Amino acid sequence: MAVKKAVFREVGTAREPAVDSKIVNLRTKMEVYKAISGGGNFSNCPVRDVIQGVSGKWSSLLMMALAERPYRFGELRRLVPDISQRMLTQTLYDLQRDGYVHREVFPTKPPSVEYSLTDLGHSMFGALHQLILWAELNHDAVREARAGFDAAQA
Amino acid sequence: MAVKKAVFREVGTAREPAVDSKIVNLRTKMEVYKAISGGGNFSNCPVRDVIQGVSGKWSSLLMMALAERPYRFGELRRLVPDISQRMLTQTLYDLQRDGYVHREVFPTKPPSVEYSLTDLGHSMFGALHQLILWAELNHDAVREARAGFDAAQA
DNA sequence: AGTGCCGGTCTCAAAAAGAGACCAGCACTA
DNA sequence: TAGTGCTGGTCTCTTTTTGAGACCGGCACT
Q: The whole model's pTM is what?
């Protein structure tokens, strides 16, 4: 496997040709998505394709853990106690398939498996981290909104 | 309803007390999450709580549309052709409940309903937008990884 | 009088997620 | 030597979430 230096494009670090860092021409963007998808549905939409991977119930949490350091299967299971073994396996598999996570088996006596972020994974986590930070900072506002909404419905 | 100036905290715009913009002490953070959740599960985890809202299949797409301008129900349905009416209703309801989206009914003859982003919604979209941009820029890398992985499995 | 648009809700089928039993192989202990 | 535990899974069953599509009332227009 060629090593291929990490050349993933980080948002905001350089000039981006057609895609602005501001919400410019978002309408056009949506229409372009619709156009490239053959007029039918949005199945080819890059956003959807990538966001889907992160949007799993556990993906972001696992990405967050692995961003800190590599973890073994059992460690992850203990770290996130309410994930089922089945979903842990499957989420890690999906993350691996999308190129975010590297899986390595060590021939120890009970063979251990280590999961770590690839360069692509780290790059993606950079963007995801923004959302995580926002979530931490504004969690209260969201909970407040939710409580207010529920009260109004009652 | 009080107007209450938008004072949501934008990531990276100011000094943040305990939360750094770098991936510092992520391990500590995870442990803190685990601690505050009573040692049991992560149900109180702010990240999980907020990410869940965005992680729906349609949430990010709708946020993206509404970030551009307000849309009416039927417009959204036409914009995202492969969403079922049921899921459109429900996703918008959830976004509204979390305080991201404002719903306004206009007493036109066939009464029309307009959905728009609240200040909180715009604030959140700012963070989400980073991820969207990343997705656009690195979509090819992900698709490549996926293709390579699938080929290796076969 | 018939047809269509508007923003939904309701029902039923399919897909995804959660819970938990089960597995093989080796090390350590009794 | 038999029993126990740890490793990282898979398999099956149940519950929850999603998707597809029929149905609704009310008004405008033809």
A: 0.83
